[in-house]
Specification:
Elements (H helix, E strand, L loop, with lengths): L2 H4 L9 H10 L4 E9 L5 E7 H17 L7 E5 L4 H13 L2 E4 L6 H10 L4 E4 L1 H9 L9 E4 L9 E2 H6 L15 E6 L9 E5 H15 L6 E4 L2 H4 L1 H5 L2 E3 L13 H11 L3 E3 L2 H13 L9 E3 L7 H8 L7 E3 L2 E3 L2 E6 L2 H12 L5 E6 L4 E5 L21 E6 L11 H7 E4 L2 E12 L5 E6 L4 E3 L2 E3 L1 H8 L5 E9 L6 E8 L7 H12 L10 E4 L15 H12 L5
Parallel strand pairs: 1-11, 3-4, 3-5, 4-8, 5-6, 6-7, 10-11, 10-12, 12-13, 13-14, 26-27
Antiparallel strand pairs: 1-2, 8-9, 15-16, 16-17, 17-22, 18-19, 19-21, 20-21, 21-22, 23-24, 25-26
C-alpha cells in the first residue's frame, strides 16, 4: 500500500506523505540524530528532531519558501551539509513541490559549476561557502533569482533560513504532486562518463521506498547509520531513526573507524549503508582491534563491486544472524538487484575468484532484467533480436518503476541510454554481465572498460578477481593499451599496505596465476601503482581511464 492510498489522496504521490504518516504514528520517536559536539569528558553529544518536530519544521520551511517565491516546479540548487537543517529542507522542498538540483561537491569546482548551470536553476539554497562560490562565478547562475543562506548571510542578499521559517505563520498545504511529475534532478558522479542530471519523478521515489522496505524487511523500530547523504533521506520515510555519522561523506575511504564504531554502539544501530571503501576500512580496523558490532543486523554496501574478501572480513565482526547485502544499481536505476553475504560466502565467492564475474543477485520485485548484444551505438526501439542467450555476456538493460526515463536537457544521452519498448523504456546500464540458470546476474564490468584484443575480448571484473586472490594484492585493474581491436592487456596492481614481498617476486607469481586460467592467459604485463584513482562519491570505483593513460606513459605508446 503506497503513501497516497493510505492518506486517501488518490492522485497525490509525494515522499513527504510518508513522513506525515510516521509523525502521526510515532511523533516522539527520534527521526534524525546529529553529533553536535563533545561534553567536558570528551563524550559525543547529540541534537535531534523527533518525527513530529521534523514534520512541523519542514512544514514551516515549505510555507516560507512559497511566500519567498520558491514554489512548485522551481528548480533549486541545494548545497547544504549533512545536518538537521538538511533533512528539514529536503522534506520542505518535496512538500512544496520544489525541484532540488543536487550535485556532488567533490567532483571538482569546474565540473560542479557546469552541472549546476546545466540544471537551469532558478533558486539557490546553500551554506555561506556555497554562496561565496556563487558570488565568485556569477555567469553560472544568471537565471537564479531567489537566494537562501543556511547560516550567517553576508554581502549577497536574499533570505536566511531563519527568516524563511518566520515568513508564514499559517499551516502549509502540501503541493498535490503527481506520479510522473519531476521531484528532483540528481547528477551522476561522472566517474564512468559525463555527469548527467537524472530526472527523478515522485513516482520513482515512491517506488524506491516500497522496494527498499519490502526487500530488506525494514521495520520502523530500526536505527540507521547512513554514510551516504542522499540515502539518508529514505530513513524518515521508512520510519527509521537516522544517526548522522561524524565523517566527511565525500571521503569514505578515509573515515575514522573509531567514530563509526562509536555511533553504532551509542545508538544500537541496526542498519548501515557503507561503500565498499568504508566497509574495507572499518572491517580491517575491527579485525585488528578485535571489535564486534552485535547490534547491526543488516549492512548494505553499494557503489562499486564488493570483493568477497571484504564481505568475509566484515561479516566476521557481526552476529551470526546479521547479513551484508550488496544491491546493484545506478543513479538512474536503484535498487534493481541484490544478493546477501550468506549466499556469496557459501556459493558465489569461489566462482568469482575463478573468473566468473561478481554475482549481484536476482531482480527485485517489479524489476525486469535483460541482456542485449554489446554495442556502443544508440538503439531507438527494442527488438527481441537484440537479446543474447542465457549464459552469454551482454549489456545489462533494465525496466522497472525505480528506473528514470530521461536525463535533464540531454537528448544525446537519452539516445545512448534509453530504448523505447511500446509505451515503456529500457535503461542501458552501460555494464556487462551474464545470467545463470538461477536467474542470477553476474557483473563483468563497464562496457567502456572492456579490452578488445586480436585474440578476443577481456572483461575487467572476471580478470581482476583472479589477480585479487594473491595475498599481496589489495586491488587490481585491467586496462587496454592502444586501440581496439588490437589492444594490449595490462594488469595494474595496488599492493596491500605494509607489503614486504618484493615486486619482482609478486609479478612472477601473478603471471603464473594468470597462466592457470583461460581468460587471463593473454595478460603478460604487470604494472604496480601506489594508489589507484577512484570516484569521489564512494571512493570505490576505479578510474581505469586514468590508469590506461598512466600505463601508456609508463610503457610507451608503441609497446607491442
Amino acid at each position: 500500500m503506497t503513501a497516497m492510498n493510505e492518506t486517501n489522496s488518490k492522485d497525490i504521490v509525494n515522499v513527504s506523505l510518508y513522513l506525515k504518516q510516521m509523525a502521526a504514528i510515532q511523533p516522539y520517536k527520534r527521526a534524525v540524530v546529529f553529533p553536535a559536539g563533545k561534553d567536558g569528558e570528551g563524550r559525543v553529544t547529540y541534537s535531534h528532531f523527533t518525527f513530529q518536530q521534523l514534520d512541523e519544521e519542514s512544514d514551516r520551511i515549505a510555507a516560507g519558501l512559497a511566500m519567498a517565491g520558491i514554489r512548485r516546479g522551481t528548480r533549486t540548487i541545494l548545497m547544504v551539509r549533512q545536518s538537521l537543517e538538511f533533512f528539514a529542507l529536503a522534506f520542505a522542498l518535496f512538500k512544496a513541490g520544489v525541484v532540488p538540483v543536487v550535485v556532488d561537491p567533490g567532483m571538482g569546482l569546474k565540473r560542479m559549476l557546469s552541472c549546476l548551470q546545466e540544471g537551469k536553476p532558478e533558486a539557490f539554497i546553500g551554506i555561506p561557502l556555497a554562496h561565496v562560490v556563487r558570488s565568485l562565478f556569477p555567469k553560472y547562475f544568471r537565471n537564479v533569482h531567489y537566494f537562501i543562506t543556511v547560516g550567517r548571510r553576508f554581502f549577497w542578499g536574499g533570505h536566511t533560513l531563519r527568516q524563511i521559517r518566520e515568513l508564514c505563520p499559517t499551516p502549509h498545504r502540501m503541493a498535490e504532486t503527481q506520479r510522473d511529475e519531476t521531484a528532483a534532478i540528481l547528477f551522476t558522479s561522472g566517474s564512468t562518463g559525463p555527469a548527467k542530471g537524472v530526472v527523478y519523478t515522485h513516482g520513482m521515489f515512491d517506488a524506491q521506498i516500497q522496494q527498499i522496505k519490502a526487500h530488506f524487511n525494514i521495520t520502523p523500530d530500526e536505527i540507521d547509520l547512513p554514510t551516504f547523504p542522499l540515502f539518508a533521506i529514505f530513513d524518515p520515510s521508512l520510519g527509521m531513526t537516522a544517526v548522522i555519522p561524524d565523517m566527511d561523506p565525500t571521503k569514505p575511504a578515509l573515515v575514522n573507524p573509531a567514530k563509526i564504531i562509536e555511533a553504532v554502539n551509542n545508538h544500537g544501530v541496526t542498519n548501515m549503508f557503507a561503500s565498499p571503501a568504508l566497509l574495507n576500512r572499518v572491517g580491517r580496523y575491527c579485525r585488528q582491534h578485535n571489535v564486534k558490532l552485535p547490534s547491526l543486523k543488516r549492512v548494505v554496501s553499494a557503489g562499486a563491486p564488493v570483493p568477497p574478501a571484504n564481505i568475509e572480513r566484515f561479516a566476521a565482526i557481526l552476529s551470526d544472524q546479521a547479513e551484508i547485502h550488496t544491491p546493484y544499481g545506478a543513479t538512474e536505476a536503484v535498487p534493481i538487484l541484490s544478493i546477501g553475504s550468506k549466499e556469496i560466502l557459501s556459493e558465489t565467492k569461489k566462482l568469482t575468484e575463478r573468473g566468473f564475474g561478481n554475482c549481484v543477485g536476482r531482480p527485485l520485485q517489479n524489476t525486469e532484467i535483460r541482456l542485449m548484444r554489446i554495442s556502443d551505438e544508440p538503439v531507438e526501439t527494442w527488438s527481441d533480436e537484440l537479446a543474447v542467450p542465457q549464459g552469454e555476456t551482454g549489456e545489462i538493460i533494465v525496466k522497472a518503476p525505480v528506473v528514470s526515463r530521461q536525463y535533464f536537457g540531454r537528448p544525446d544521452q537519452n539516445a545512448l541510454h534509453k530504448i523505447k519498448d511500446g509505451q515503456e523504456f529500457w535503461h542501458r546500464m552501460g555494464d556487462l554481465g551474464w545470467l545463470d540458470k538461477s536467474e542470477r546476474l553476474w557483473f563483468c564490468g563497464r562496457k567502456s572498460h572492456r579490452v578488445i584484443t586480436d585474440k578476443g575480448t577481456l572483461y575487467t571484473i572476471p580478470c581482476e578477481a583472479i589477480f585479487n586472490t594473491h595475498p599481496a594484492v589489495f586491488r587490481s585493474a585491467l586496462v587496454g593499451m592502444g586501440r581496439p581491436p588490437r589492444q594490449t592487456p595490462v594488469i595494474c596492481i595496488e599492493l596491500e599496505p605494509g607489503n614486504k614481498t618484493s615486486k619482482q617476486i609478486i609479478e612472477q607469481e601473478l603471471l603464473e596465476l594468470a597462466g592457470q586460467f583461460v581468460i587471463t592467459q593473454g595478460i603478460k604485463i604487470v604494472l604496480f601503482h601506489h594508489a589507484f584513482p577512484v570516484d569521489i562519491r564512494h571512493n570505490s570505483k576505479i578510474f581505469r581511464e586514468q590508469l590506461k593513460v598512466w600505463a601508456e606513459k609508463t610503457l610507451g605508446k608503441n609497446h607491442p
